[in-house]
UniProtKB/TrEMBL annotation:
Biological source species: Hamadaea flava
Enzyme class name: isomerase
Superkingdom as given in the UniProt entry: Bacteria
UniProt keyword rRNA-binding present: no
Name of the molecule in the record: DNA 3'-5' helicase
Residues that bind ATP: 31-38
UvrD-like helicase C-terminal domain segment(s): 218-483
Range of the intact protein held here: 491 to 1025 of 1025
EC number: 5.6.2.4
Keyword Nucleotide-binding part of the UniProt annotation: yes
């Protein structure tokens, strides 16, 4: 457990401390990537509880993903100890479901809008409607949670924003923390306008900015700021490196002839960084070679999942272990939802979720084949997938387990400690950090992504907005890197069924050439241009 008491805020810098110890009332923390947002948020909750006599049960912290909620819970526990369990930490979806269930115990999640309840997308709007219709209920919730915190606030949509307004009075203790320049979910209805509306709707809102980046080297931070500058939503955006390292490498740029060549470059470079896979195993047995970069330190990011296969292939051929985050929702698997339904029906030993889950699988496996399209293999595979969630929910019980499952538990094979290179889409990489990052496919039409027909489907304004969001994705990608960043692009790539020519993304144009180092022996045309200009 970390030190509680006077030292609680010692691990924060001056501005983080101002944010963490700000008095009550609306508080907006605008913080760039790597500036320690979660760190500040958890310290604020801990400080309020440990030193300002706020009861943990009066605190509600909301995040967008279950993974982020778990992370918050863990960090709070480290700071506050067991009382942190009294803080409500929830995703918007799970919060809405549990509050709706308080009113209607039989409420279930339906797979389709016409079916077995309420759909996932409908949870928050339905709660908003209920609270509007029952002001007494809204009032009692305002008393229950006197302190509300929202992480990744730039991603709120209209309903979530309305929910916050119902849960917190205009002069209430709402602390919202986020970065408008990392708003990348407008396709799901998120709207960065709600960030800008905070100061209008919440009275005398205090604004704190964090600008020291603790994550990345100076060249990476400089490139990130230059990349976002043309469409930054943060006036006077600043990001100052906390680390000063004159040895920090420049950003590598590689122009490949094709997507396959790009993938080979990535594999070759990972191999070199890690010390040579084949050499390394020999060296390891002799115990001589010191390895500075390990596979866990490396992430390959890309705009579309379609890019992954070529890269996985090249890495595997080079003998490099790979892990790829899956975005399947657990409940989307038929065997999983069958087990969940069976567990709900069966009477049993409530706290022992795991044996109850095994029983459910057993019952389903023994059903005549005609009644069930599920094979025993599917069912037992589902039991394996559900076990980590069941373990986590063992204390909280069946209802929590089913809620977690219904509100977005993912099949997430990603293990931050695994000895493997991590492959992720840019969207999935948000919030994470890696010592070495490859951003693959930095090509016009891919990043920014332009789908066929978009030009005719979207108005010019919509196209401009879409392009700005793509630039924010590029910004998110660059700012995941701690020490080494590689920006790669290919001259040819298979897309939509045929091989097409590609040119580098225009997003690269705003990055100072002095921050980039051309790698490889492909002599790209742009480079010759630059040399000519210098002459
Ligand atoms: P993002 O916008 O990408 O989600 P963030 O603002 O949430 O970034 P964090 O991930 O919380 O940033 O912090 C980035 C890194 O900086 C982490 O490794 C964190 O431990 C470290 N860090 C943050 N604040 C400090 C500090 N005051 N002293 C030392 N390290 C810090
Ligand atoms: Mg974060």
């Amino acid at each position: 457990m970390e030190e509680v008491g006077t030292g609680l805020l010692d691990r924060l810098d001056a501005m983080q401390r101002v944010a963490a110890s700000a008095p009550g009332g609306p508080l907006l923390i605008v913080a760039g990537p790597g500036t320690g947002k979660t760190r500040t948020l958890t310290h604020r909750i801990a400080y309020l509880c440990a030193e300002m006599h706020v009861f943990p049960e009066q605190c509600l912290a909301i995040t967008f993903t279950r993974r982020a909620a778990e992370e918050l819970r863990e960090r709070l526990k480290a700071l506050l100890g067991p009382v942190s369990g009294d803080v409500t930490v929830s995703t918007f979806h799970a919060l809405a479901l549990s509050l709706l269930r308080e009113q209607d115990k039989s409420l279930v999640i339906a797979e389709t809008p016409d079916a077995h309840g309420v759909t996932l997308d409908d949870l928050v709007p339905r709660l908003v409607k209920l609270l509007r219709a029952k002001p007494d209920l809204a009032h009692s919730l305002r008393n229950r949670w006197r302190w509300v915190f929202v992480d990744e606030y730039q991603d709120v949509d209209e309903d979530q924003y309305e929910l916050l307004r119902l849960l917190v009075p205009a002069d209430g203790n709402l602390c919202a923390i986020g970065d408008p320049d990392q708003a990348i979910y407008s396709f799901r209805g998120a709207d960065v306008q709600y960030f800008l509306r905070f100061a209008k709707d919440f009275t005398d809102a205090r604004l704190v900015r964090l600008t020291r980046n603790y994550r990345s080297s100076a060249p990476i931070i400089a490139a990130a700021v230059q990349a976002i500058a043309p469409t930054s939503l943060v006036p006077g955006r600043r990001l100052d490196p906390a680390k000063v390292d004159p040895e920090a490498p420049l950003i590598g740029r590689y122009a490949a002839g094709s997507a396959a060549e790009e993938a080979e470059f990535i594999a070759r470079t990972v191999d070199e960084l890690v010390g040579g896979v084949s050499h390394r195993s020999k060296a390891d047995t002799r115990g001589v070679q010191s390895v500075t970069v390990s596979f866990t330190d490396v992430a390959v990011l890309y705009r579309t999942d379609a890019q992954a296969a070529t890269i996985v292939d090249a890495l595997q051929r080079a003998g490099i272990p790979v892990q790829k985050r899956s975005h399947d929702r657990l409940r989307d698997r038929p065997a999983v939802s069958a087990i969940a339904a069976e567990m709900r029906l069966a009477q049993g030993d409530e706290p022992n979720l795991i044996s109850r889950m095994k029983q459910a699988a057993q019952v389903l496996a023994e059903r005549p084949a005609l009644d069930s399209t599920l094979s025993p293999e599917d069912l037992w595979a589902a039991v394996d997938l559900l076990t980590p969630l069941a373990r986590r929910c063992e204390k909280a019980g069946l209802e929590t387990f089913l809620t977690e499952l219904a509100t977005g538990a993912e099949v997430d094979a990603l293990d931050p400690r695994a000895e493997a290179v991590t492959l992720l889409t840019l969207h999935a990489a948000k919030g994470l950090e890696f010592p070495v990052v490859f951003l693959a496919g930095c090509e016009n039409g891919l990043l920014p992504l332009r789908l066929p027909g978009a030009a005719t489907r979207l108005t010019p304004d919509e196209q401009t907005a879409a392009e700005a969001e793509e630039r924010r994705l590029f910004f998110v990608g660059i700012t995941r890197a701690q020490r080494r960043l590689y920006l790669t692009h290919a001259a040819k790539r298979f897309r939509y069924g045929s091989e097409r020519e590609a040119s580098p993304t225009p997003f690269l144009d705003t990055i100072d050439a002095g921050l980039l180092e051309w790698l490889g022996d492909t002599a790209p045309v742009r480079r010759r241009d630059q040399q000519l200009r210098l002459l």
